Amino acid sequence: SGVAWRAFEAPGSFSLVFEGKNRLGSLEVCRALSVDRAWRSGTLYLPAFRRSSAPRPFPLDYPVEQLLFVSLLACSAGAVVHGTGVILDGQGFVFAGTHGAGKSTLAALFRHSRGVRLLNDDRVVVRWLDGQWRVFGTPWAGTVRQVSSESAPLSGVFFIRHDTATRAIPLFP
Predict the structure, then answer these.
(1) What is the pLDDT of residues 26-59, one digit of tens each?
(2) Taking the mean position of all CA atoms in its chain, how far away is CA 173?
(3) Distance CA 58, CA 126 (A)
(4) pLDDT tens-digit profile of 114-138?
(5) What is the DSSP letter of 56?
(6) Model-level pTM?
(7) Which residues have C-beta within 8 Å of that of residue 43, sequence separation ≥ 6?
(8) How many helices (H) and strands (E) does the chain have?
């Protein structure tokens, strides 16, 4: 994204500082966010904008919105997972893997499968809610460019990688 960020801890708050390259190519602070320790309130600091007809940039663009989202989830028994999420017969499944593992390939196949609803091919949310784990779609589309706001009870997580054969190996807690 061209934006670097750093996190700082203070006695009563957390701060995130975002830096981007200026016209001369050097890094400068472009936004800062200070939030209380409970992540209930905060202040977003933006640079002063000169009057012009050019549109102002969206203040919560990448990576600010995702860092807020991830931090809020961490406070409420949830996490963003780098994976493809689908719903089949009312049950949610996550196929997690590193870059290039095949998440988007699976998503492209699932997208055209009868009875399968694709939540996202790159990032999904897994969250403990009402006594059960659930998987949710997120608004951040990957290669397949399809997202859903649906959710379902989580029935399985698969850690995928390339190999010489297709097989499932059960993992135990």
Answers:
(1) 888 888 999 998 888 999 988 877 666 777 777 7
(2) 25
(3) 27
(4) 899 999 988 999 999 999 999 999 8
(5) P
(6) 0.75
(7) 33, 34
(8) 2, 10
